[in-house]
Amino acid sequence: MMKLLVSIALIAGASAHQNFHQFWVNDVSPGYQVGIRMPPSNNPVTDVTSNDIVCNVGGTSGTGVETVAAKAGDTIKVQWDSSTHPGPITHMLYGPVDSAASTSGVGAGWFKIDEQDYVDGKWANEIMEAVNMTHTFKLPTKLKSGEYLLRSEMLALHGSQTLGGAQISLPGAYNEDDSDIYIPDFYYGFDPTTYKAPGGNVATCA
């Protein structure tokens, strides 16, 4: 058995305003904004070197936030606010830890378990719009028991024209001039079929 506490990361090089409000474990939701470290606003994080990259502004503590039971291999569905900003969605885990509520998530130990980039001519946000702004994926089947932070990230690439598989460190894993964040020709010749979201490959649990 494991417990999840969800953290949110909306990253953009320009204004993008949306939040994550609800998730489901095997089609059962703990409730609206339950089990989530909610940020103070729907503003994006634009400084990828800030601790805010981990779980948004003020998200390094989840004290008082309820953790939600899940099992390895369970199906997770997340729901974000509507967005017209092109970009991927990714999910990472941090743990197991003694307490998901008190763990900041700052530093090394994150591993990617899911990503959706550009599929059949559409970015993840467009695909999600067609299903009430939801995205579904499975937890790895060989996770150790314990408590985890689950990080849901949407990267808005509409501002990417302006510079501004292993465990990774947050902050530290992203740089503002990375080719998957800074894309000067995004609307003028960029081939989205070659795009891969930041954070490395999706991890394989052995």
TrEMBL record:
<keyword id="KW-0119">Carbohydrate metabolism</keyword>
<keyword id="KW-0136">Cellulose degradation</keyword>
<dbReference type="GO" id="GO:0005576">
    <property type="term" value="C:extracellular region"/>
</dbReference>
<keyword id="KW-0732">Signal</keyword>
<keyword id="KW-0964">Secreted</keyword>
<dbReference type="InterPro" id="IPR005103">
    <property type="entry name" value="AA9_LPMO"/>
</dbReference>
<keyword id="KW-1015">Disulfide bond</keyword>
<feature type="domain" description="Auxiliary Activity family 9 catalytic">
    <location>
        <begin position="17"/>
        <end position="168"/>
    </location>
</feature>
<feature type="signal peptide">
    <location>
        <begin position="1"/>
        <end position="16"/>
    </location>
</feature>
<dbReference type="GO" id="GO:0030245">
    <property type="term" value="P:cellulose catabolic process"/>
</dbReference>
<comment type="similarity">
    <text>Belongs to the polysaccharide monooxygenase AA9 family.</text>
</comment>
<dbReference type="InterPro" id="IPR049892">
    <property type="entry name" value="AA9"/>
</dbReference>
<dbReference type="Pfam" id="PF03443">
    <property type="entry name" value="AA9"/>
</dbReference>
<protein>
    <recommendedName>
        <fullName>lytic cellulose monooxygenase (C4-dehydrogenating)</fullName>
        <ecNumber>1.14.99.56</ecNumber>
    </recommendedName>
</protein>
<keyword id="KW-0624">Polysaccharide degradation</keyword>
